[in-house]
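Practice problem 4.
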């Protein structure tokens, strides 16, 4: 009995100590809702619609506030001014990658997306340089995208105008572009390895956007102790890593240091150059993780945007008609669209920007972290603190974009019908951690969509008015609902 009382007192003291330390820490951080022990503010956040919860909390606590998703605090940046001040004006201090425990089990601080410090800087710099050398934003990459657009058209013709779910076909096109950059060659759409890669990617995005994944990331102790969809995610990631290492082995056997064919060749050459450097970041493990980062980022976000784009073009046939009219006027029917055409197509440019604004693909982007103790707006944010940036708060800002919940290309057109930029339009985030593949993604969206509309009329098997464009999940990525579409040859 006495032992039970003693243990109860010890536990009570530990709980009070934890609450005192948390309270002491909170006094220096931005304001926010009072967290509960262990679970923090998790009950005050809708894990199916985090953006709405952040918007509601910002109305109470302002554009910079603290949220406890579990035991650790996260500082939330809501609205253009707060995001700009942090990610641009204090870019270096906010350039860290926040905690993402599920991926950390596999990536171990390597690659581009989830790394930090010296590794991140070196691998990002090398990746950007290599992609540019292979033509990102230049003619050679544009040729690859145009070739893939033509292959995509041929695949769509095989549907014979019958209703189909476009998810798989639209995923194949951007996947093949990134495969040609990383692995040298594209795949046939029926290749079994290719099918496996695509299925794993589609499955991973659904898992990452689920409420369960938010729980796993905020309570990492359960990752190794409870079953759930996160185990399937990790299995898929490990499978892709094995595939990458097999490709690396093949590349080593046929490597010509004077004639690199793709990203893997360039990485292997860099490894050889750095082999005597004990602090070198260029290793087989890092190559596999970096390749997986490029593959996932270069495939799924673009294919999801393409899928959402077609859904919106079905929903708003009057918008589609205006885009097709511009295609006929600027490009015609007898040549492939090219990036030079975009500057002569303001309405199409506005539609593409509005699609990315409206769908809000990555509502809170990937978590950031501060790289040092920083005084920000009179608050002290300790080194390593996770920072959540609400991209939704800018893309759906009702002052910059009147009636933001309405799909309206006019948001990006001036009174003369010319394209109008907006600093609030940052679907690829901003600052030091801006998406490495932004240029490639914008190129693919323009060339794929204009090529599709050049060759097909889009028809919905149901009345366009009955199409729902509301995302079915938006925890990590905004996933569009399933729909059927008919591609009718022009």
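Answer key:
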């Amino acid at each position: 009995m006495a032992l039970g009382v003693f243990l109860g007192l010890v536990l009570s003291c530990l709980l009070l100590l934890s609450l005192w330390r948390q309270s002491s820490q909170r006094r220096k951080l931005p304001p926010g809702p009072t967290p509960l022990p262990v679970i923090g503010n998790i009950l005050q956040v809708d894990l199916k619609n985090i953006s709405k919860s952040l918007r509601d909390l910002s109305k109470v606590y302002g554009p910079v506030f603290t949220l406890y998703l579990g035991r650790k605090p996260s500082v939330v940046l809501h609205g253009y001014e707060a995001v700009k001040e942090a990610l641009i004006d204090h870019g270096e201090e906010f350039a860290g990658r926040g905690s993402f425990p599920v991926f950390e089990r596999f990536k171990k601080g390597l690659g581009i997306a989830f790394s930090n410090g010296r590794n991140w800087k070196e691998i990002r710099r090398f990746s950007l340089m290599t992609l540019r050398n292979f033509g990102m934003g230049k003619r050679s990459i544009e040729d690859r995208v145009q070739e893939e657009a033509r292959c995509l058209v041929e695949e769509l013709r095989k549907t014979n105008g019958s209703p189909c779910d476009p998810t798989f076909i639209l995923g194949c096109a951007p996947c093949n572009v990134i495969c040609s950059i990383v692995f040298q060659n594209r795949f046939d759409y029926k290749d079994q390895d290719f099918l496996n890669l695509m299925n794993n990617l589609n499955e991973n995005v659904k898992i990452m956007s689920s409420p369960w994944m938010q729980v796993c990331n905020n309570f990492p102790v359960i990752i190794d102790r409870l079953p759930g969809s996160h185990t399937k995610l990790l299995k898929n990631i490990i499978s892709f890593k094995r595939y990458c290492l097999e490709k690396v082995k093949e590349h080593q056997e046929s490597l010509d240091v004077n004639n690199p064919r793709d990203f893997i060749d360039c990485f292997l050459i860099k490894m050889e150059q750095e082999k005597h450097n004990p602090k070198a970041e260029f290793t087989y493990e890092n190559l596999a993780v970096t390749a997986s980062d490029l593959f996932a980022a270069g495939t799924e976000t673009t294919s999801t945007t393409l899928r959402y784009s077609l859904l919106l073009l079905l929903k708003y046939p009057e918008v589609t008609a205006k885009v097709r009219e511009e295609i006929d006027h600027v490009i015609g029917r007898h040549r492939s669209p090219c990036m030079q055409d975009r500057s002569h197509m303001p309405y199409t440019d506005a539609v593409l920007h509005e699609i990315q604004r409206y769908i809000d693909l990555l509502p809170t982007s990937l978590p950031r972290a501060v790289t040092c103790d920083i005084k920000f707006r009179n608050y002290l944010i300790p080194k390593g603190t996770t920072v959540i940036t609400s991209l939704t708060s800018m893309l759906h800002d009702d002052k910059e974009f009147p009636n933001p919940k309405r799909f309206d290309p006019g948001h990006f057109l001036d009174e003369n019908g010319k394209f109008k930029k907006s600093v609030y339009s940052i679907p690829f985030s901003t600052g030091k951690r801006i998406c490495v593949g932004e240029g490639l993604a914008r190129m693919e969206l323009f060339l794929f969509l204009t090529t599709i509309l050049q060759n097909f009329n889009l028809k919905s098997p149901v009345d366009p008015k009955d199409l729902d464009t509301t995302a079915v999940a938006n925890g990590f990525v905004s996933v569009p609902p399933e729909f059927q579409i008919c591609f009718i040859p022009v």
